[in-house]
Structures
1.
Amino acid sequence: MNKLTNQRAWWFVLPVVLLVAFNAIIPLMTVVNYSVQESFGENMFFWSGVRWFEEVLRSERFHSALWRQILFTGIILVIEVPLGLAIALAMPRKGPWVSVCLVLMALPLLIPWNVVGAMWNIMALPDIGLLGRGLNALGFTYNYTRQPFAAWFTVVLMDVWHWTSLVVLLCYAGLVSIPDAYYQAAKIDAARPWAVFRYIQLPKLKYVLTIAILLRFMDSFMIYTEVVVLTGGGPGNSTTFLSIDLVKTALGQFDLGPAAAMSLIYFLIILLFSWLFYTLMMRNEAR
Amino acid sequence: MMANIRLQDLRHSYVENPKSDADWALKRLTIDWADGGAYALLGPSGCGKTTLLNIISGLIRPTEGRILFDGRDVTDASPEERNIAQVFQFPVIYDTMTVHDNLAFPLRNRGVGAREVEERVREVAEMLELDTTLKERAAGLTADGKQKISLGRGLARSDVNVIMFDEPLTVIDPHLKWVLRSKLKELHQRTRRTMIYVTHDQTEALTFADQVVVMNEGEIVQTGTPIDLFERPQHTFVGHFIGSPGMNVLPCEVAGGRAIFAGLPVESANAAAYRGDGGRLELGVRPEFVSFAETGIPVDVMKVLDVGRHRIVETTQAGFVIKMLVPEDEPIPEGAAHVRFAEDRTRLYRNGWLVT
């Protein structure tokens, strides 16, 4: 068989190459460029090798931001995924309430992130906010601008409010796509509700759950706007997550080298975790 | 343990307040299924056969009428209480379980002891030739293997009243269809369970069943052995739907106890029974019982189709097509010819139904 050599085809690929170059490769390479050089005023750059990477990896500040980030993402995943699945299971499959539920669920997703932050900021204020005043009236001493625990509580609550819907909608879509015959067969086989969940719904939801977990992992690992508006990373550094720390380094202190090195490490961590999640959840498929 | 099943005065509609005839998916029917029988429910898509099946299994509650298992009213009983098994159009298996656990699932759910479960699973796996795959994950099997698992879950239970099949061969490769079909027949003979097989494929129905129930537009048009359906269709629909090609249905009149088609008298088995009460009159005769003759109905030969041992000849008279089946060694005249209908195989139908 003769191979066709038609070099003109490259012209058709060119637009995509340009697009990818401008929106991914060039910005990424700029960051790589910064991460291996020391910068001075008037655009003077000196080669510094892997110094910034070593510095970031050894820095106490980076470690604690990373730890906070992992803790935060872990907590919201543990809450949002089971909660979202439970809500999706409880939602009606037929009738007029379906659209009502879907709209209600979609609402939080439509609100801009800084608005979400502002809403929760005001709502959680201990003197005038509904949540803040309510909690204090119930006898809890709650002040998210002073107590790290209260700040964490508010940030987690806000994220659960904002993003559980995404898990709900994905799971719901997965649930309604299960053919009726499966439920009918389960009835005929005298399966209890738990067995229906365990052997029909959960296996059929595997892919959407994988997607939901991946999306929530990546998004929450990069959370920025809502937290900045709500707590500004405080009190102290108690809610300074990776992205907030990164912005402080890059734009607050203008340490471009360390910030670039940090970005790349950050990027690789997300990549690594995503790959890990995906491989773990899909490992049975190969068989 | 098994049961005679009786459906009494059944009607079903998917519409809230059925008004017109078309609102009824099932129009009033009564039918008995004897214990241990092999039945087929045959009809075109949308004729109500799946509705009827789901009513028997308890997945749908009929709008009107009762379902009796050995005289016991089970109209409001759940599928679980009715002790039935069903094989669906698309294989339904529990993906994450092994083949063994799939077969054991309905037994374990019913609290059957571990030793008996093992015994039953082995026996069923052996019958279905699944014994070598017992330890594999069910999701890895081919479509026919999966369909065997769904069937096996029904066979594994010793107390099943009836096993129902809803077009079970839809997703099976053609070359495996006949293997599974003869397997089903063999299983029926071996286990003597009542089986109801729903299909729109006449070959499947006629090879599997002892009794075929033909449905059309929510009604049962005939119940009988495959031979009955072929030789004595009670309705022109049965004549046309069963057989390849189907029965010729020709408009006619009746005068002096004789049928008259296109101005020519035609001898038939039952025209004398016609009581002169009007209605749409038709003559039905299968292509197998039409032959060329010296005299008779003048026709024009239009088309000849060779189908192996026979040829299908299409002729016309006064604009009506008369199909006939001619053995391969018989000559076929060209152009104008005469045909005869075998008298005892030619029947008069009034408004679609056989005149008696």
2.
Amino acid sequence: MKRWILTALLLATPAAANNPPATATIFAAASLSDVFREAGRQVTKRAGYTYRFHFAGSQQLAAQLEQGAPADIFAAADDRWMSYANEHNLIDGTAHNFARNRLVVITPVSNPGRVDKLEDLARSGVKVLMGTEGVPAGRYARQALSNLSKGTDFGRRVLSNVVSQEDNVKSIVTKVQLGEADAGFVYVTDVSPSMRGRVRAIAIPESSNVIADYPIALAHGAANPEAAKAFMDYLLSTDGQALLARYGFLSAGNATP
Amino acid sequence: MIRGAVQVAMVVAIAVLVLLLGLPLLALLVRVPSGSLLSRLSDPVIQEALRLSLFTSLVSTLIVVLLGTPVAYLLATRTFPGKPILETVIDLPMVLPPTVAGLALLLAFGRAGLAGRALSALGITIPFTTAAVVVAQVFMSVPFFLTSARAGFAGVPRSLTDAAATLRASESYAFFRVVLPLSMPALVAGASMSCARALGEFGATITFAGNLPGITQTMPLAVYVAFQTDLEASIVLSVILMLLSFLLLVGLRATPAGLAGRRPTAPRLVSTISR
């Protein structure tokens, strides 16, 4: 009887059947969700490894890693949470910057708040969404605002129009797309081809914009380091960089090893 | 032999459940940095979240009781076509993932939502306001009150209402003088459960109402935001929230209505049914 149960269990466990390709778990910033899924498909095609993704705000991922969540890769949307992970022994080896991003202001296509230029964000009654101070996109947005203010009270007035501090950038995109908010601070890459018909983008001038660095590292105690390394190598390769560019990311520049 | 097996099963089940439910609470308590509970309580952000949480959950409980009592009475005493469908719709929030509820609320009462457009035309916008927090809490907590209140009303012996009717008491007179007093323990239990659920509401709130300190950032949201940046603050906040919920549930058992359940008269019957 016992042996019978054991056999049944073994049969039911897919891993026991034949050696399947190793699956690596990737913890990545929410803004990377589209491009990482595609990168995963590419690496699977080339090397046979498969990937499981967990996308959330970088700060949340760091907190989860700290609590022992099993991961093979950690990719953050800013240096701050990667340094945090490094200081808390959550990563192995060094982190590499593999892409850069910029901020943009989006409005619903219907534009209920009549936000056509950045100055309109300061008009009283405009409903603005922004990340919390903990989420990188929220921190960058505050930096960009202070750059844009140049001694005026512009930033303060925009901040007083913030109706919600969202915990990840994708929920800002969703709520703006639904027309519930008049404008939101997101990454350029969030205005993906599928989003272009649903939201409008207002560029932030280069001089005031903030460049977000995306670092990636092997998670401490990775169960599938080979699969993880294959993914990281792909991102840093010419093909990987071209894919990132297609999704609107800037090249990591001289930060690549 | 069988009796022994039952006893063993009960002991094992209790041990497992106590471990599962009690250990996480204990883990929170032992991680509280000494002396920081009171100092954190004076933090304006926490005070704001605490005040907002208490205010919204009291308001939502009031709404739940006012709207829920007639509905529970209707469900307990009448049959009508479509009743099973109504019952299912009312129970749905209990099994619905809260974020789904939040999204549904946004699509219904959001500025661009089904009913939201009309509200918007009247100059009323709900999302990202304290009102949205209350709406989310009512949505998620009303089934808890209805379940309990309905069982309470259904548990009032028919003979008593019939007797009231033969004495020519009107239905409303009988309701207030006979049915309501007998169902009170069940109503109080339902209101407390519903209030506790509102106090802990998170998913529907952050999706529908957003997260802004002082306006929509209730205690559970403050715990979540703190968890991402300051684990210690998050633990302290969690413990405060846990103590509040604990007091609420203990208070429920100590209320006169709760005590009434111990008297060997009619209310006892009601409260047994409602449990």
